[in-house]
Amino acid sequence: MPRPPHAAPPSRMRRIRLRRSARIAPRGAREARRGGAITMAGVVIVAHAPLASSLLSCATHVFGTVSDVVAYDVGADDDPGKTLDAVRNRIAAVDRGEGVLVLTDVVGATPSNQADKAAHLANDAGIPTSVVAGTNLPMLLRALTNRHLPLDETVQRVLDGGAHAILEMEAPPTRFARPLGGDARGPEGKPTPARPAAAPPQGGGSSGPAKPDPRRPE
């Protein structure tokens, strides 16, 4: 059957598909598909409700279903002991022998405090566990795409990803912005005169008549 003239050659289409899969899938997952026994660090997200589950939802929107990644939302009235037990249970559930990364939101708040306690208990129990606070979505995505690495390297890449993702974006110019010292065109194309600069108040900026300067002779 002849190939339509607009279709790409089969070999080129295959290369495109391979490049797309290489961008999306973590390296460990690609090696696992080739038959290697690759294990990755587990991830537990602990944050004020509903941030933890929302971050996980965003991650599944990007990557689809992710294994050994769970979220725990801490409610405003939750007992700290309940939160501690819940985080400990989730750390144990996602551990596959490569350690667990706990991502939390605000340093010093209940979620991070209980996550830190749970991590210490997990380390005492033989589960390497690290906690990173200040989590945002870029940090979570970095964690998911680098958790095939040793846990300490994963932590460093997560920190780098969070720092690099926080920046001020340059805003586009306003459509009808008034240039300094000139005129701008309004919505109907008519020139709008520039507003004259206000004269500085006399007498050091105070209201009322200007006071004479004692150093200046009358």
UniProtKB/TrEMBL annotation:
Keywords: Cytoplasm, Kinase, Phosphotransferase system, Sugar transport, Transferase, Transport. Its main location: cytoplasm. Residues 40-166 form the PTS EIIA type-4 domain. It is found in: Cytoplasm. Gene3D superfamilies: Phosphotransferase system, mannose-type IIA component (3.40.50.510). It holds the Pfam family EIIA-man. InterPro entries: Bacterial_PTS_sugar_comp, PTS_EIIA_man-typ, PTS_EIIA_man-typ_sf, PTS_IIA_man. Residues 189-201 have a biased composition (Low complexity). Residues 170-218 are annotated as: Disordered. SUPFAM superfamilies: PTS system fructose IIA component-like. CDD domains: PTS_IIA_man. This is PTS EIIA type-4 domain-containing protein. It comes from Pigmentiphaga soli.
